[in-house]
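Continuing the series of single-chain predictions for the mutant panel. This is the parent chain; the variants come on the following pages.
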Amino acid sequence: MWKYYVVAHWIIQTTTTTAHNNGFGPGRQDWGFSEVRQGAHMFWWLYFVTDSDVDHYSERPIVIWLQGGPGGSSTGYGNFEEIGPLDLDLHERPHTWVKYFNVLFIDNPVGAGYSHVDDATYLSKNNEEIAQDLVNLMRQFYETFPEFRKTPLHIFSESYGGKMAVQFAYQLHLAVKDGSIVSNLRSVALGAPWISPEDSVMSWGEFLLNLGFVDTKGFGVIHKAAKSIRVSMRDNQTKAATDLWRSMQHIVTKEAIGIDCYNVLKPQRSISAAISKDEYEMLHFGEQHPIQHDMMHTMDSSHKLNRLMRGPVSTTLGIPNHVLWGSQKDMVFAALFDDFMKPTTQVVETLLNTTELDVIIYTGQLDLVVSTPGTVRWVEKLQWPGREGYLNAPRQGIDYRGVLEGYEKNYGKLTMYWIDRAGHMAPVDNHMAIQYILDKHVIV
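Parent structure:
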């Protein structure tokens, strides 16, 4: 039986939002739909800071959370499984980010989570369209909450959300610069970011070999598949590269015998004959459900989250009956199929070269999907004035409350973190290291 929290909801006005009386979970909240384009409706859910010593919530920073996928739901996965005030069992999360910041979860792109389109033709086809939708959302957000215009804003993201975040940050920066939006944008943080797919997939074989998950023969099979993807990408055949990437999922799970690709040290049960190959690959490598403990846990938590978001949460938030959480996520991926493998390293370079924004990158040492070696490779290749300074900068240990939680390297506007004992979802696996990052870059 579900445990409910109901709190007062503060009425707002947006172009497509209906006022509600109750919220879901502890603390003050607000939420709504914004029509970012004709036929494209984006859902957002704002949690106001709960533990603060300031007179007004706007004195604490705003953190935007963007989920990966593409098609993952920030209001679902990011909220209930990673950083929100309640966990999936509706127990209060001790290390929720809402204690320290105003947290804005956005179901993005349109079609993810509660966000939806009236017709598939309105789905975003590329990263630039995704970013423009987010800028349109923020324009409406600041009209609704003008008190936040001077509040420091930080964009945090995970996985494919990182690809979306860098483009969003740059386009929001341009909107601020031309005066069409007033915002105090400070930084963009990229967790396990899908920025350079080529560097990521080319690192998989060596990563698995060095950790002992495959032998030399298995390495050869995986590396051969990765090189095929690289050829397609360099020939600008990105759709073919995405097809090959999907095929490579089966190769990796076969050669590594059921490895959890989101955290390679998570204990795994034997592959059940009752589960199809497609279902198995989705659970272990498919980005449709990001929290991977073991196969049985994943199936259970996926069903639990689905019931929660389509049942109690939808009812409490007054979600329209025609909006079914997560029902368009597969359409989202299909619409972005050609764009999926395109890199956004040039956008990161643009942020470093033309803006004052801090760029924060963090990677879990146990993540295979966006492995640390691949991330290090593209970060060190970035072309910006501080490149040599970054390469020569010292790498220091993260000593947080007497425990070594990882490593950091900084020069100018660029900071990279290596997170110990963490996979793809570092806020779940090592929230202490993430707290260190938040303390350093967001808490003021």
